């Protein structure tokens, strides 16, 4: 039985065409950075609920979700239309294993996101734990257009705070942006350009790769990593790849 909490929208921020974040005031309990909640609205008399990662870190005094409008989907466009003061339902239970405590002891953590999949990684990177545990953290963020790169202020702040430890790599696939790869994550792994750029290798002895977002990216990158001797991480059988597929 799901216990639904009443959430009040505090802010609806539009980042670019079709990309939004909602700050919600809701009495949620403890959670781990990287986890997700179920958010729901009543639509035509029926409750429609979907999972959304929390972008905020546990120590921050707000709850935030970041999402894109899926034109054919029932919930995302309605969430995007909410205004401050509107009510959303938020499930009390927070779930998910895309969390730092699930990552085995390694030197290098790679966080590879497509689109809104960057959210749970930002939640984790805003906490102390990853910076205490890993020598190097690579955040890879792939979008189609440069305007879709959101949370750039947060990313810049993290880079300033952790200049030696953090590498940020943007992938903008449909246009050229200075400093970003104009190709997919897979292409830059196959060509060796990604490892060259960040100065470390995707080696199973030293690396763990977390991926979030589009299942095509996750599947194709996983295939490349598996050919290098990496395997899916399970608690009972530790591996090198942790994923969360949004769609
Ligand atoms: C564990 C988990 C966490 C998630 N966290 C987030 C999040 O933080 N931010 C976020 O934007 N989405 C997230 N999603 C996806 C989200 O739950 C919804 O599916 C999405 O917002 C669309 O909702 P909808 O009701 O409008 O359409 P749906 O009925 O859910 O989906 C309609 C169709 O669109 C596809 N689809 C779903 N999401 C996307 C997308 N983002 N882009 C393109 N196609 C999509 C679905 O596969 C389906 O074919 C998450 C999904 C899971 C499983």
Entry summary:
The protein is of the alpha/beta class and 247 residues long. Helices cover 21% and strands 33% of the residues. It has two domains: 4-91, Elongation Factor Tu (Ef-tu), domain 3 (Beta Barrel); 100-245, Rossmann fold (3-Layer(aba) Sandwich), CATH 3.40.50.
Account of the protein in words:
With 247 residues, the chain is an alpha/beta fold. It folds into two domains: 4-91, Translation factors (Elongation Factor Tu (Ef-tu), domain 3, Beta Barrel); 100-245, Rossmann fold (3-Layer(aba) Sandwich). It is 21% helix and 33% strand. It is built from seven helices and eleven strands.
Assigned CATH architecture of the largest domain:
3-Layer(aba) Sandwich
With strands numbered from the N-terminus, the spatial order across the biggest sheet is: 4-3-6-1-2-5
Instruction: Assign a percent range to the helix content.
Output: 10-25%
Number of helices: 7
Overall shape? globular
CATH topology of the largest domain: Rossmann fold
Order of helices and strands: EEEEEHEEHHEHEHHEHE
- Which residues sit in consecutive blocks of at least 5 with pLDDT less than 50? none
Q: What oligomeric state best describes the polypeptide chains here?
A: single chain
What is the CATH superfamily label of the largest domain?
A: Nucleotide-binding domain of ferredoxin-NADP reductase (FNR) module
Distance between the termini: 25 Å
Number of strands: 11
Whole-number mean pLDDT: 97
Number of domains: 2
Structural class: alpha/beta
Q: Give the ligands present.
A: flavin-adenine dinucleotide
Largest sheet: 6 strands, antiparallel
Q: What is the beta-strand fraction?
A: 25-35%
CATH class of the largest domain: Alpha Beta
């Amino acid at each position: 039985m799901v216990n639904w909490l009443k959430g009040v929208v505090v802010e609806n921020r539009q980042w670019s065409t079709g990309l939004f974040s909602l700050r919600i005031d809701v009495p949620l309990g403890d959670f781990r950075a990287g986890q997700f909640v179920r958010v729901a609205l009543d639509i035509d008399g029926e409750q429609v609920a979907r999972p959304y990662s929390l972008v905020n870190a546990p120590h921050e005094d707000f709850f935030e979700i970041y999402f894109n409008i899926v034109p054919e989907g029932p919930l995302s466009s309605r969430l995007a239309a909410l205004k401050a003061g509107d009510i959303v339902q938020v499930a009390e239970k927070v779930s998910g294993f895309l969390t730092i405590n699930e990552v085995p002891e390694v030197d290098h953590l790679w966080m590879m996101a497509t689109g809104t999949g960057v959210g749970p990684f930002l939640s984790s990177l805003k906490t102390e734990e990853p910076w205490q545990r890993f020598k190097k953290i690579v955040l890879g963020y792939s979008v189609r257009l440069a305007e879709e790169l959101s949370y750039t202020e947060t990313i810049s702040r993290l880079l300033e705070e952790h200049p030696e430890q953090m590498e940020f790599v943007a992938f903008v696939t449909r246009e050229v942006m200075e400093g970003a790869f104009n190709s997919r994550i897979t292409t830059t792994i196959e060509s060796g350009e990604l490892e060259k750029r960040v100065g470390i290798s995707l080696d199973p002895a030293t690396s763990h790769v977390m991926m979030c977002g589009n299942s095509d990216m996750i599947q194709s990158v996983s295939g490349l990593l598996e050919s290098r001797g990496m395997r899916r991480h399970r608690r009972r059988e530790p591996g090198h790849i942790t994923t969360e597929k949004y769609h």
